[in-house]
Amino acid sequence: MPTVAPLDLPGHCVVAAFVSDVPHFALADGTVHRLADGHKHVAAHDGLVCATLDEKSERLLTGGEDGKVLAIRADGSVEPLADVGRKWIACIASGPQGAIAWGSGRTAHVRFSDGRTKLFEHARTVEGIAFSPKGMRIGVARYNGATLHFPAADGKPTELEWAGAHTGITFSPDGNFLVTTMQESALHGWKLVDAKHMRMTGYPAKVKSLSWSPKGRWLASSGAPAAIVWPFQGKDGPMGKAPLELGLRGNSQVTAVACHPADDFVAIGYADGMVLAARIADQKEVLLRRPGKGAITTLAWDRAGRRVVFGSTDGDCGVIDIAG
């Protein structure tokens, strides 16, 4: 049976992740907590807005209301990477060769490993940012679509248009597809070789969490009473195919998803604090955690695929060991 090591923290958990296999919890108040030979924390920001794991560089990247971009290591050391003044850092992403990118206002910033920074201006606010898994390329989610840039080269960006507010963005692991979350409770995608559209609709709530299976064959999403898992095995992605519904519960919405790093199953978090795992092949479910305080906001696996870290809107956080 899975065992849960709870951690009661004072407020909304924005991102939970394993940094060098050490559980970290980044809270909206700007503190980052970690479980390393006991419970420790650092006061990183005056209000934290976004965070992401940079797994290759073994650091947590954070952005705040204070306009600062930081890198936090498993030993608690904090490295300042940028300060944009009074503008919030709304989104952040890690890329190849130690590069990172973030959005503040209408500007997308890319910082290369040597410290050089390149800016890309947009007509509307940068809502989401992501690196392509192939080459030095970024995607920016914005109002009425997405924009693609090659930061290391000079040239015109690629504009992908679709009416509506696009709030988040992700590339498929093979780099063939781009998917955005939308304010209109839908996903929208593009097949990048020909800019063909992919509409993924029918969600009763806004999609706030996306996760690709390890080989990119599936894309799991929140925003419904089940985890909605879209098939991406074919050259046209999910077009003409129905998604799977994993972990269906009539009385609670799925609020967070995280695909296992090696196998095709998904950790699923709910609005009532429950967490379960479901296997894609046969939809078999295993309860990982009973309902708790607050909706699950974030889930992540460790590298071995044996532990899951979770956080909630009410600071009801912890680590699940699936082997017990």
What is the N-to-C order of secondary-structure elements (H for helix, E for strand)?
EEEEEEEEEEEEEEEEEEEEEEEEEEEEEE
Q: Tally of extended strands?
A: 30
Q: What is the average per-residue confidence, as pLDDT, rounded to a whole number? A: 96
Task: Provide the gyration radius in Å.
Answer: 19 Å
Helix content: under 10%
What is the name of the CATH superfamily of the largest domain?
Answer: YVTN repeat-like/Quinoprotein amine dehydrogenase
Helical element count?
A: 0
Structural class: mainly beta
Main β-sheet, spatial strand arrangement: 14-15-16-17-18-19
**Straight-line distance between termini:** 5 Å
State the CATH topology of the largest domain: Methylamine Dehydrogenase, Chain H
Would you state the CATH class of the largest domain? Mainly Beta
